[in-house]
Amino acid sequence: MTTNRRNVRGAWWCCVIAVFIAWVQPVHAHMLRGESIGFSSGFEHPISGWDHIIAMVAVGLWGAQLGSPALWLLPVTFPLIMAVGGFLGLAGVPLPGVETGIAFSALFLGVMVLGSLRPPLFVAVTMVGIFGLFHGYAHGTELPEGGNAVLYSLGFVVATGVLHGIGICIGLIHRWPFGRVTLRVAGAVIAAGGLFFLWRAIQPEEQPSPEDSGAFVAPTRSGNATA
Amino acid sequence: MRRPDARARPLPLAAIGALAWLFAAPAAQAHLVTTGLGPLYDGVGHFLLSPEDVVSVLAMGLFAGQRGPAAGRIVIFAVPAAWLAAGLMGFCIEAAPLFSQPQTAAAIAVTLLVPGLLIASNRFSSRSTVLLVTVLFSGLHGLLDGVSQRRADSLAASLTLAGIAASVFTLVVLSSAFVVSLRIPWTQIAVRVAGSWIAATGLLLLGWSIRRMG
Fold first, then answer.
1. Do residues A63 and A168 touch, judged by C-beta distance below 8 A?
2. CA distances (Å), B74 to each of A25, A144, B111, in order?
3. pLDDT tens across B117-174, in order?
4. Full-prediction pTM beyond 0.80?
5. Which residues of A touch B193 (CB under 8 A)?
6. What is the DSSP letter of A113?
7. Are B47 and B163 in contact (CB under 8 A)?
8. Selection from B211, B100, B109, B86 nearest residue B161 by Cα
């Protein structure tokens, strides 16, 4: 075995052990749900919603279908632009149509994988970048005030990368004929998921009634209730 | 007779240890770490329990290693030296700036963002600029460490900063040597991906600090 292979194997073990250790959360006597505690809570954030998960896995699948250099260029682009979106969300810069954009990203990527479509690299990277912006923005606006922003951000980014990695690993079956068919089926499933999330995103939001929202309802003299 | 590749085994093992330490670290606290082993080891403990410092040094090591052995050889000495010098400056000079917590976070975010982007792009080749970037950012971290030592006496502060610099040296040597040793093409890509992750972390941290400033 060459030095390189040993180093690479060591690096893999390094990552596995690091993630395993990182999963352990510091003990807090009064831990509140939703607080950003550290690496593990940041890691859990991107994998908390299926709309994010299927889109990020689809990026990896599509990258594997497209082959090098898209194979690594898409997963490099996505976290970076996603962080730009997160930055905008944290900074309070408005961005319209976020939920629609996220749902459309899953639909678009699913269709690309389903059709095994190969647009120019520039177009693929640009599209993935735009989608990354929406995903990052949604996360950025949801990020709570936390104890350790560095570890939280690191966990957040690593989880995104892991989802891409899962997509790439699955996408490697592309080299076999049955794998190509399986990938296209996976693309169809992702597109269907994207369509579902898109349908949900464009539904008009229902205004919660005062009783549903839990607000205090005080009776008035005329008998009507005011929140 | 020992095979040449057998000597290289401690490197990934040490890298495993360093990375495990990085992630095992709990949240960094404003007060200094006290190990009970003296100020030198307090400095080592302070560094290892400060993820922002560890990730930043890791980024500088990856960046230097990516630029090749010649750049790596300069950076492994320049980074800890700049860290120590700026730390002593921050400790000694009363006029050294005192940053608020969000300002500190923003400055640290930049030290993650810039090397991360340079690693991810892998297009930069000037050795002098590698040196400039790494010295500038390590100096910034050192300055912050030095300012945080002002309450300590001179000897203890110096030893603590020396402990931090020794830890910085160890990590920058391990990370840059690891990258230099990589020959398989996809491992170089993995380094670029790691750079993009570091840059993304820095960008999120920057957004966070801006929100806190607001």
1. yes
2. 38, 41, 19
3. 999 888 766 888 889 989 999 998 998 888 887 777 888 888 999 999 999 999 999 9
4. no
5. 72, 75-76, 161
6. H
7. yes
8. B86
